[in-house]
Amino acid sequence: MTKPNQDWSKRVEELAHTRLNDCYQCGKCTAGCPRADVMDLPPTRIMRAAQTGDILNAARATSIWRCLSCLTCTARCPKSVEVAGVIDALRQISIETNTFSDESLKVVGFQKAFLRNVRRNGRTNETEMATDFEARYFFRRFDVMNVVRLGLLAPKMLARGKMHFKLGSPVKDKELVKRIFDRCGVEL
Amino acid sequence: MDIGYYPGCALHGSSNDYEASVRVCMKALGVELNELEDWICCGASAAHCINKKLSTALPARNLGIAEKQNLKSLFAPCPMCSMELTKANEAIRSDEALRKEMSDIVETPVTGNVDVVNLIQVFQAVGYDAIAERATRKLENFKPACYYGCLLTRPPKVVKFDDPEEPTSMEELLQKLGAEPVEWNCKTVCCGGGLTLSDEEGVAAMTYRVLQNAIDSGANCVVVACPMCQVNLDMRQADAKKLGLTKDVPIFYLSDLVGLAVGCAAKDLDIERRYVSIPKDLK
Fold first, then answer.
1. Given A38, A156, A173, which is nearest B275 (Cβ)?
2. Which of B49, B58, B163, B239 to mutate to test the interface with A (most CBs of A within 10 A)?
3. Is the ipTM of this complex over 0.90?
């Protein structure tokens, strides 16, 4: 019988299509990571945690949501490990197990709001998505400065015709999009 | 030449200036764009973080539509879209079980035989020399820093485009059109666009790093082929100023410069709605 932590490592390998033990901890991913300076666990240490089966701890790291998915780590890995894919797998697990760090709330909230919007419209309606995201974030954190920043930005976007209240062209078969989401087991 | 066209959400939203630029430029080059019927979002930066299967299914639906419309190649001007479409296409082509699963999920057969291309690849298909022959003006005064960002060249095994560390395809094209692209260090360094709405401070630092390097290398503008890079480098420049950015840097789409060279009017290319306005000598 496999131990639970080995099951988690296996799940990461399946999601990321990569072998965790291929990583020999050279540190090249962290050296090139543009966000390593703001990460609690930089990519090399994320990889190590994943190798040792310490998945839930890695899924709690703030760094997996500070990652911008720029894919520099994956592009440079001398062992062709899908480092960014491992981070994606940990993100998915952190949402499924609801273990993402409190500090990551805003980024997680953004990604979820984005997909809720796609599920509803088939395409992103940016203004509707941003309103949904910012409103939910406000009621979680009461971050007044954030509202002020948005209040300063919105008129600039409006003046340049970059804020739209309707989609340029709507999707005809929206129900199909909902069925695709449901078949993939997406919970938002 | 005619080609399938997947605009993606950004080009129908806040980056509709990119769509105008692409359409006008392509028309001038004689490239006809056949827009994919009833396309849906590719999942962008969100699907792959939340649900792996969805991040394949959303592009797969679009690939299925392209196959049904018998489009051999599909042009996605947004590198996020073109990378996600390419990744799904490759995964589906090489895995029979996935092919069947995805065809069921998206309710249309998908085999993974669509050739997905980015903006630069469309220019390559037209031919750099053919574009230069159509040019009606030389891009004098333009000293662009050609910015590739993340997803035009990464992941290299998926996109198989240019050199992931030292790409040169934009420079080669712009040189032929009379511009003088600068040598610089941040061609493929991430600008932070993916978190422009959810981590403003972190993103400002990344934007500053890229733009200051362009300025220090002698550039008088930055050229991108990505709507996310454009909006982030342009809109967040005010925040980068607070970190010490030494001057304004206009941010062009590659299609703006090619369009200007082949005689399109600046107004038609829709370059007037930028946050950092474009100086007269660069129109």
1. A156
2. B49
3. yes
